[in-house]
Write a structure and sequence with these properties.
This protein is α/β, with parallel strands linked by helices. The protein contains six helices and five strands, in the order H-E-H-E-H-E-H-E-E-H-H. The protein has a five-stranded parallel beta sheet, sandwiched between helices. The longest helix has 17 residues. The radius of gyration is 18 Å and the shape is elongated.
């Protein structure tokens, strides 16, 4: 998580080379929710860095996990407000792409955080965990921990969203491969 918070600060710093150059620069942070502790910390880190650089940071979040429509509305607001860039943790990695394209077409720098967009090149850059590798490592650990009992293990996959964001799919598939399935 620390690396992601640092990456968020680095992205804000890239939007303004120096604090003096940051005057009149605004950026947007759009997270999946404002209740998940991970996104709360991300917002705190981004807010602190924006203040340090003199960037006006506008924050938006979905009402609930998977709230794609609120994120699209936030992107449209950022475009209308003249923001220079958007830091985005997409609730729906493919449905958000037309709004991201609109932002980029209007000259905004769009950086995907935590969750790569689908396709990944829809954003200007991505700072995210390799979720397949994370799942694979967890699967390897689980198999090693169970030892001989791994052959008889019953595995259930529980995902938070019906739409199966790529994070969940990649973690699931990585886990299964790491577990040896």
């Amino acid at each position: 998580m620390i690396r992601k918070l640092l990456a968020t600060g680095s992205v804000l710093a890239a939007m303004a080379a120096t604090p003096a150059a940051a005057a009149d620069i605004s950026a947007c942070l759009i997270t999946k929710t404002d209740t998940n502790p991970f996104f709360v910390k991300m917002k705190e880190g981004a807010t602190a860095k924006a203040e340090e650089l003199g960037i006006e940071l506008k924050s938006f979040a979905g009402r609930v996990d998977g709230d794609h429509e609120t994120q699209v509305a936030a992107i449209e607001t950022c475009i209308a407000d003249g923001a220079k860039g958007i830091l985005l943790t997409a609730a729906d990695t493919s449905s958000i792409v037309p709004a991201v394209k609109q932002a980029r077409d209007n000259g905004l720098l769009v950086i995907a955080l935590d969750t790569p967009l689908d396709p990944i090149d829809a954003a200007d850059a991505t700072f995210a965990t390799d979720n397949f590798k994370a799942g694979e490592l967890i699967g390897q650990w689980a198999a090693a921990t169970l030892g001989d009992k791994a052959a008889d293990a019953k595995i259930a996959m529980l995902d938070i969203a019906i739409s199966q964001p790529t994070v969940g799919v990649l973690r699931d598939q990585g886990f299964l491969q790491g577990f040896g399935i």
